[in-house]
Amino acid sequence: MSLAHAAAEYMLSDALLPDRRGPCLKGLRLELPLDRMVKFIAVGFPLLLMSLAFAQEFSSGPPIRCFSPSNFSIRQAAYVDSSCWDSLVHHELDELGQHKMKSLWPHKALPYSLLALAVVMYLPILLWQYAAAPALSSDLLFIISELDKSYNRSIRLVQHMLKIRQKSSDPHDFWDELEKARKERYFEFPLLERYLACKQRSHSLVATYLLRNSLLLLFTSAIYLYLGHFHLDVFSQEEFSCSVKTGLLSDETHMPHLITCRLTSLSVLQIASLSSITVYTLLVPVIIYNLTRLCRWDKRLLSVYEMLPAFDLLSRKMLGCPINDLNVILLFLRANISELISFSWLSVLCVLKDTTTQKHNIDTVVDFMTLLAGLEPSKPKHLTHQIGDENP
Fold first, then answer.
1. Do 349 and 368 contact (CB within 8 A), yes or no?
2. Which sign, positive or negative, has the C-alpha torsion 260, 261, 267, 270?
3. Quick check: 5 and 166 in contact, CB under 8 A?
4. 241 to each of 85, 99, 230, 258, how far by Cα in Å?
5. What does the pLDDT average to over 45-61?
6. Which intervals of the chain form a coiled coil (predicted)?
7. How far, in Å, are 126, 177, 268, 282 from residue 286 at the CA level?
8. 3-class state of residue 70 by DSSP
9. What's the burial of 325, exposed, middle or buried (CB within 10 Å: 0-12/13-18/19+)?
10. What is the SS3 assignment for 340?
11. pTM above 0.85, yes or no
12. What are 296-325's pLDDT values in tens digits?
């Protein structure tokens, strides 16, 4: 074997991808980076505010302080605080002098409403994890494995062509067989392309993804309604008039009809309300952007893998409406690009193909690696001229 053939063999052997399937693919990302960010903020932020509310209660004491009459004992004053916190109703007279009551229950329900908010915002994530993630995981495992295997098959094919060329005594026979193989499409492995084409007609993943983000937008709108309807009414009311002349105390003459109380936890309610509106308002454009990504194809990823034989979704214009499962799979392939070992090799080959002077003869990785191995990707011109001279 000549030195040139040995160097070509070493180069092709180095271009083969290592077989690292198995444990290395257990870390597949089944959430897009922006979706993961939305999940952590939408679910984690209410839990942070809930811990702030409980911490304020434990550090500052009771969330209410009532100004009981000076002749009240300590136990009577404690009873007034407890009774007013349990009722949490503001008594006042309107412009017509009629008695009017207003409930201040959002102060009492604040930690539990924040917990309920976190649970509600986690429901779309649960929907995705149980309805779409298992099928998506199997799709990604198969596609990543097939993409890398298709690349390796192309390299092994070039190795086989190099051995045949070395053993062939007549170059005409070798190039005739090679052109016949190209015409018969022997170099193509259409299983993966057909599988991806079938995914264009499937819509289960994209429907689940749309439902997940639509539910996030719906629940965010519900948060605005809740804060605007319930928190806005009590947002700036720090003091209220509480009535303790109920039940057994209704006939007590020494008991004042109304006692003024002060809410020491008002600042926590204000911080929770304003910060929630700010954070969820900032999340809305991110969620909408996640939805708009389904309206366009990731053609850069597809163009790189156009170097593989029988992977011509772009050149054959097989891509139609992008709202289907194939587009979702491409988004997650981009998120798991570190698992695609062949992507870096094919990216380099694409750059080299665009800069080579013979790029009109190079369509696939087989053509390019054939050229690098010292073989012409098509029949040399001097052999074509020889055949023409022999057959005038």
1. yes
2. negative
3. yes
4. 12, 12, 19, 6
5. 84
6. none
7. 19, 55, 27, 7
8. coil
9. buried
10. coil
11. no
12. 887 788 778 777 765 666 555 567 788 899
